[in-house]
Amino acid sequence: MLNPPRRPRLTAHLHDLTCWLFPEFHQPANVAAEKLFAERIWKRAAGLIAVSESTRRDACASWA
After folding, report:
1. Mean pLDDT score of the chain
2. pTM score of the predicted model
3. 11-32 burial, b if ≥16 CB within 10 A, otherwise e?
4. Using CA atoms, how far apart are residues 21 and 62, in angstroms rounded to an integer?
């Protein structure tokens, strides 16, 4: 490919949202890293794939 896209479309996987829902059970550095990741990837992704129905519901409730 001679001219690859500069901002390719992304799809991200959501495994769980415990850093968001229960930050008190995580190291502060992990919570901060998860939020930074969300800012950079999740908001730019063309699609999100949840690994379970529970994770999908949590994501819909968190970003509704």
Report:
1. 88
2. 0.69
3. eeebeebebbeeeeeeeeeebe
4. 9
End-to-end CA distance of the chain: 38
Note the pLDDT tens digit of each residue in 17-55: 999 999 999 999 999 999 898 888 877 889 989 999 999
Alpha carbons 47 and 13: distance in angstroms, whole number: 9
The pair of three-digit structure tokens given for residue 41, joined into one six-digit string:
């990837």
Q: How far is C-alpha 58 from the chain's CA centre? A: 12
User: Which residues is 50 bridged to in the sheet?
Assistant: 14
CA-based R_g, the chain, Å:
14
